[in-house]
Amino acid sequence: MMLLIKNAKIVNSDGIDDRIKDILIQDGKIVKIGENLKSDGADIIDAKGKFVSPGFIDLHAHFRQPGQEYKETIETGSAAAAKGGFTSVFCMPNTKPPIDNIALVDFIIREGKRVGLVNVYPVGAITKGQQDEELTDMFEMRRAGCLMLSDDGKSVHNSHLMRMALQYSQMVGILISEHCEDPLLSKTGVVNEGYFSTLLGMKGDPAVSETTIISRDIELAHYLDCRIHFAHVSTKRSVELIRRAKTDGVKVSAEACPHHFSLTEKEIRSFNTNLKVKPPLRSEEDVAEIKRGLKDGTIDCIATDHAPHSQEEKELDFDQAPSGMIGLETAFGLGITELVDAKILTLPQLIDKMSASPAKITGLSAKGKIAEGMDADLTVFDSEAPWQVKAAGFASKSKNSPFIGKTLKGLVLATICGGNVVYNVE
Amino acid sequence: MVEWNKRHLLDVEELTKEEIQQVLDTAKSFKEVSSRDVKKVPALRGKTVVMLFFEPSTRTRTSFELAAKRLSADTINIAVSSSSMSKGETILDTARNVEAMNVDAIVVRHGSSGVPQILANNLKSSIINAGDGCRSHPTQALLDMFTIKEKLGKLEGIKVGIVGDIMHSRVARSNVVGLTKMGVEVTVCGPSTLIPFGIEKLGAKVCYSVEEVIKRSDVLMLLRIQKERQKENYFPSIREYAMEFGVNAERLKKGKKELLIMHPGPMNRGIEISSDVADGPQSLILEQVTNGVAVRMAVLYLALGAKE
Ligand SMILES: [Zn+2]
What angle do CA A22, A26, A28 make, to 5 degrees? Predict the structure, then answer.
């Protein structure tokens, strides 16, 4: 099967190609890039006037399967990913039961392939049942296709266990992603602790809950000379700690979520439970530092933390409603609107944060770049088109987005994964 | 008097100085009603007021109920335990069910901050906040202002000290916001661990010495200290709390002779307040209860007569 993308403005992390080119795809690979390519019998997509980038890669999403299929399934999550321009998604293991063994890893991979829209990579748990007590069988999960481990939803609180996890996972060759939150400091907090939690009388979750775990993990990674990845970094001080660690040569990488560079804690005044998220929305200074971290490379990539919840759950009060918001379908629009338009990142830099860099972090060497021989995972988009976020427009099973009603710039027109067109706006 | 245009009362923060004044003036005339032989006016005849309490509170509920009855409104009490919430019914389900019975006002108490706001966003009835989470208890703040003004003749320039668990107190937060708006100088006092971040930005001064606060205040407001805070390690022991922050007659000697004592109740006698202070000549605690009814009558009357 062949596909020919005509008249593409190719944008990679290292820049925008100064010539309009065609991309020929065969058997899931990019076989040729050049001007005025011809191919008999190939399906044709005309990308005239549009950008084509390597497909986006999300290191942090929740597809809720197995166990909470009323929120999302691998099928609906994959459709949301494709609509958002993502071709690879890492699914966090806090499912019911948690993905902590080869059988579940295998199930996620098989179900992802059966759905056949995007590449679905299961993230395995670090500890059995995410109970913070015993390590999971890492070698076995790695062999089954697991590239990353996380106890997302919580951190590994036992410091000895975290040390063992880092040392052991390094040998296995699997990356650990840490959800940084000290549960004893966060307690029952629902919003950032500070002026707004005081004003609104809401339980505060202090920034220091995130930074104590980041500090501990930086020290462990430094001591053990191991790699570690920090999920959804949200505070100014976190960025400063990671920046310093990188200067010191510690092997750390970090992601930030679109809502943490687009929204501040001020929004909570509306009591819209779709704004309840972990880590919580932070202050203006925190948001400014996240942007600075993205710009100077302290933060390597953008991940969505796509966290679907049902309407019934979000209709509870702020204390009881679950944390999280969906993000796959708004991530690119927010990247263009909040980062590229605001001159924080150039377009190629945004593509780096959403594709090349996450590919590099997880060792997906055939992804994250448009070049001959690479996987044919591509996103076609219009960087200027404005569009309004609508609840009815989401492909995700859940609609818990605080961006509903907002107008964003940057619209995904088509998504190609493994040479197949998995989303097309028309 | 200007026309009242607020259908809901969610927080004191949303009231202007003039609006607070208007509530206090209206309450004054309703207080007179409560002192008559026949304690009833027909102002809200034919209206239905529902007390929707997700958290038990006999005092506040009774006060609202009496206020509504003295205005000739029909009243219904609905106590919702948090257990029915866990059975899959959302707060909005419950409130929509109540509203479907054609009620005019819902007086709501909930343990989570923002619930009255969420109801106001989604329902047509007047929503009156009877206390939400640690956020707001607007009628308590209004009745406290009413009580102070009645005693001292003014609010502007008065010095009020609030002592206790400031962090978890909706009464403290509403009073800091409301009183400072009226030109009162508010100082909050309590263990540093129970003083929330950024309270100064709301206009309050912070002082950790209860004796200092006694010395400089015209009015001292004491808050109930919850014993479970000690279990959460906010302070070492109830004993030490009582020694450092408790107010007794001996300690009161450090202050002005006419220093007034208030407490929103229920009290922990012997902990934050000794009986000789609670029942002493400087105490306004029972007057607060009396005034609560008048202020709640004013709030219901204004909200249900609001023009939008
Ligand atoms: Zn997380």
Answer: 110
Q: Rounded to the nearest whole angstrom, what is the distance from the C-alpha of residue A152 to the centroid of ligand 1?
A: 5
- Cα separation, A306 vs A61, in Å, equals 5
For residue B274, the tally of other CB atoms under 10 A from its CB is: 20
pLDDT digits (tens, 9 = 90+) for B78-97: 888 765 555 567 788 888 88
Q: What pLDDT score was predicted for residue B90?
A: 79
Contact residues on chain A for B134, CB-CB shorter than 8 A = 201-203
- Sequence spans of domains, chain A: 2-51+375-424, 55-362
User: Are the beta carbons of A201 and B173 separated by less than 8 Å?
Assistant: yes
Spatial strand order of the sheet with A252-256 comes to A56-61, A86-91, A119-124, A148-149, A175-178, A228-230, A252-256, A301-302
Question: In angstroms, rounded to a whole number, what is the distance separating the alpha carbons of residues B288 and B264?
Answer: 8
Shortest CA distance to A303 belongs to which of A389, A234, A374? A234
Fold annotation for A55-362: TIM Barrel (3.20.20)
Is pLDDT of B241 > 90?
Answer: yes
Q: How many angstroms is it from A170 CA to the middle of ligand 1?
A: 22
Reported as type and span, the H/E element at residue B242 is helix B238-245
* Model pTM score: 0.92
pLDDT digits (tens, 9 = 90+) for A198-246: 999 999 999 999 999 999 999 999 999 999 999 999 999 999 999 999 9
Among the partner-chain residues A198, A273, A318, the one whose CB lies closest to the CB of B197 is: A198
End-to-end, the C-alpha distance of chain B in Å comes to: 16
Give residue A152's pLDDT: 97
Residues B272 and B255: their CA atoms lie apart, in Å, by: 17
Residue in A201, A273, A316 nearest the CB of B170:
A201
Query: C-alpha angle with apex B47: B44 to B48, nearest 5 degrees?
Result: 125
| Whether the predicted pLDDT of A39 surpasses 90 | no
Class of the CATH-defined domain A2-51+375-424: mainly beta
Count of domains in chain B?
A: 2
- Paired residues of A30 in beta bridges: A25
Do residues B188 and B217 make contact, with C-beta atoms less than 8 angstroms apart? no
B81 touches chain A (CB under 8 A): no
ipTM of the complex: 0.86
For B249-298, the three-class secondary structure string (H helix, E strand, C coil) is HHHHCCCCCCCEEECCCCCCECCCECHHHHCCCCECHHHHHHHHHHHHHH
Range of the domain at B55: 12-136+290-304
Does one domain contain both B176 and B37? no
N-to-C CA span, chain A: 22
Place of tokens 């961006």: A403
Return the minimum-mean-pLDDT range out of A55-59, B96-100, B260-264. B96-100
Is A290:A234 a contact under the CB 8 Å cutoff?
yes
